[in-house]
């Protein structure tokens, strides 16, 4: 399978720039996810790869085959050989499952016996072998989506491009569909670009994730890197939930890095080596904040503060609190309930804090 390289791809619609000199590289066989808020340019990127949009400039290459290069090269979608699946399943209602999946093979003039064999093979792959004779209206949403996937795979694609393929499925089905698709993708090893605005989907399925914002790349990394080492406040906030506290860098004792927050007596110690000057923003995920029982704070704990519970929500596997930290709010989690208005002793371990420049 080829890798995929986009170099300085730019696209505007009616004078509005949607992609700004976008660079991206998807490795051979990986599942690479474009993640970002609605309108950030994910679908435009995917459509440009498929050949359904022509960028204004830049280059797109599948392995060493250039499929787009400014105005000079623009290979048609059929010749790019991408399997594409959209959010709306776009299976043809008047064709049976078999005929939907056979269609791309028919277009390529694959002979009837070979076609029937490949349709059976690919329907087995998506676990729909027993529904070959059914029509789309006789299938569930999840099954229709698998027909769309089978059709995308029927003529083995060089790249598989998936644009929010699960967003019409209910939550339980979506979870199963992710696991199932990921396993299938690994089994066949097809280089895949997956578009979603759902962070859980991106984190759970991908080899690597590219976080986009307004047509620009914010960060590319493994799900763990994106979550634990967000490059900036946008990524920290978009992927998972995060507390952001504004403060000011102050010289710490013994060369430690410290940040003072208005209304908080002692400054907070932040990871050594953080590049600290002037106004900074501290990001800390709720689940990294340690809640100590009264009288149970370890002697070596740093950044211990007392907060007051302002609101509580029960979320099944944990409780989520909004607590008051001076004039600010701090979101904290616990496994057991704590009453509204009570005080919590919490620790913000330095290693759980990321420091960013001013917003
Ligand atoms: N054919 C078009 N004509 C005009 N504007 C367009 C066209 N296609 C996309 N846009 C605009 O380009 C921007 C990026 O759209 P795009 O669909 O790529 O975003 P997205 O990140 O995929 O969003 P979503 O998750 O909502 O699908 C949006 O502002 C959109 O309105």
UniProtKB/TrEMBL annotation:
InterPro entries: AAA+_ATPase, ABC_SmlMolc_Importer, ABC_transporter-like_ATP-bd, ABC_transporter-like_CS, Mo/tungstate-bd_C_term_dom, P-loop_NTPase, Transp-assoc_OB_typ2
Residue ranges annotated for the ABC transporter domain, each copy included: 4-239
Name of the top EC class for this enzyme: translocase
Gene3D superfamilies: 2.40.50.100, P-loop containing nucleotide triphosphate hydrolases (3.40.50.300)
Superkingdom of the source species: Bacteria
GO MF entry, a single one: ATP hydrolysis activity
Keyword ATP-binding recorded: yes
Matching Pfam families: ABC_tran, TOBE_2
EC number: 7.6.2.9
A single GO cellular-component term on record: ATP-binding cassette (ABC) transporter complex
Keywords in alphabetical order: ATP-binding, Nucleotide-binding, Transport
PANTHER family: SPERMIDINE/PUTRESCINE IMPORT ATP-BINDING PROTEIN POTA, SPERMIDINE_PUTRESCINE IMPORT ATP-BINDING PROTEIN POTA
Protein name: ABC-type quaternary amine transporter
């Amino acid at each position: 399978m080829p890798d995929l390289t986009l170099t300085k791809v730019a696209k505007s619609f009616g004078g509005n720039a949607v992609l700004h000199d976008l660079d991206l590289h998807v490795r051979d066989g990986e599942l690479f996810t474009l993640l970002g808020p609605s309108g950030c340019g994910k679908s435009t990127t995917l459509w440009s790869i498929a050949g359904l949009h022509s960028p204004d400039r830049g280059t797109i290459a599948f392995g060493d085959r250039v499929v787009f290069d400014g105005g000079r090269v623009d290979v048609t979608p059929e010749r790019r050989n991408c399997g594409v699946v959209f959010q709306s399943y776009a299976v043809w209602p008047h064709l049976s499952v078999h005929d939907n999946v056979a269609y791309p093979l028919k277009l390529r003039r694959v002979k009837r016996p070979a076609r029937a064999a490949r349709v059976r093979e690919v329907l087995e792959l998506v676990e729909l072998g027993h529904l070959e004779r059914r029509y789309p209206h006789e299938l569930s949403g999840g099954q229709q989506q698998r027909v769309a996937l089978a059709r995308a795979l029927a003529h083995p694609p060089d790249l598989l491009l998936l644009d929010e393929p699960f967003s019409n499925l209910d939550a339980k089905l979506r979870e199963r569909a992710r696991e199932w698709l990921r396993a299938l993708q690994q089994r066949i090893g097809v280089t895949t670009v997956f578009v979603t605005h759902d962070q859980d989907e991106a984190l759970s399925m991908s080899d690597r994730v590219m976080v986009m914002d307004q047509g620009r790349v914010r960060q590319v990394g493994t799900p763990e890197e994106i979550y634990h080492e967000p490059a900036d406040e946008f990524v920290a906030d978009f992927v998972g939930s995060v507390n952001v506290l504004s403060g000011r860098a102050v010289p710490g004792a013994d060369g430690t890095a410290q940040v003072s927050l208005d209304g908080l007596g002692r400054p907070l110690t932040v990871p050594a080596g953080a590049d600290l000057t002037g106004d900074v923003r501290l990001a800390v995920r709720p689940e990294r904040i340690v809640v100590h029982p009264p009288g149970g704070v370890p002697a070596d704990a740093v950044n211990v503060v007392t907060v007051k519970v302002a609101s509580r929500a029960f979320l099944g596997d944990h409780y989520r609190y909004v607590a008051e930290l001076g004039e600010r709010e701090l979101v904290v989690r616990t496994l057991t309930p704590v009453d509204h208005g009570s005080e919590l002793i919490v620790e913000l371990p330095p290693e759980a804090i990321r420091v960013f420049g001013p917003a």
